[in-house]
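Supplementary Methods. Inverse-folding protocol.

Structures were first reduced to a discrete structure-token string of length 153. This string, shown here, constituted the complete conditioning input.
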């Protein structure tokens, strides 16, 4: 298992994994509006444009040439996607992806925390990684999320 920064030619595969996992684990907690809003957010052209502008960064976990998990950040320290293929749950992939982002943030002395707007499904995963709620659950355009923060040492 290795974590790699994804190149633009690997983003379509990453987004396919994100959408598959989202539909199975996240979508049941969202309204039709929320599902559509997430679909628009992760549209290929929009994502590629944000990568080109240096607004989004993607890493993937590769296991024997198969993409098993994806993490993306908006800027350096806001996680906007963390998805692991169902077949690979509970194998430390989310933690390894998070550690990659954490290491990157720790190397930049001006960054003091990592943030995420966690879906209802992922709250316990983020708590397990050391995140704490920074506000109560919110709903914006049908997207349910709890703002969370991880304090860097």
């Amino acid at each position: 298992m290795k974590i790699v920064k994804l190149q633009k030619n690997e983003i379509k595969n990453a987004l396919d994994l994100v959408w598959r996992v989202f539909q199975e684990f996240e979508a049941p907690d969202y309204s039709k509006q929320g599902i559509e809003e997430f679909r628009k957010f992760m549209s290929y052209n929009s994502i590629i444009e944000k990568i080109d502008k240096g607004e989004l960064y993607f890493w993937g976990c590769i296991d024997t040439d198969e993409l098993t998990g994806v993490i993306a950040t908006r800027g350096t320290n806001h996680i906007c996607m963390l998805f692991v293929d169902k077949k690979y749950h509970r194998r430390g992939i989310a933690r390894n992806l998070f550690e990659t982002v954490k290491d990157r943030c720790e190397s930049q002395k001006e960054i003091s925390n990592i943030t995420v707007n966690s879906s209802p499904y992922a709250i316990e995963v983020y708590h397990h990684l050391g995140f704490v709620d920074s506000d109560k659950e919110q709903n914006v355009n049908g997207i349910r999320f709890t703002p969370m923060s991880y304090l860097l040492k």
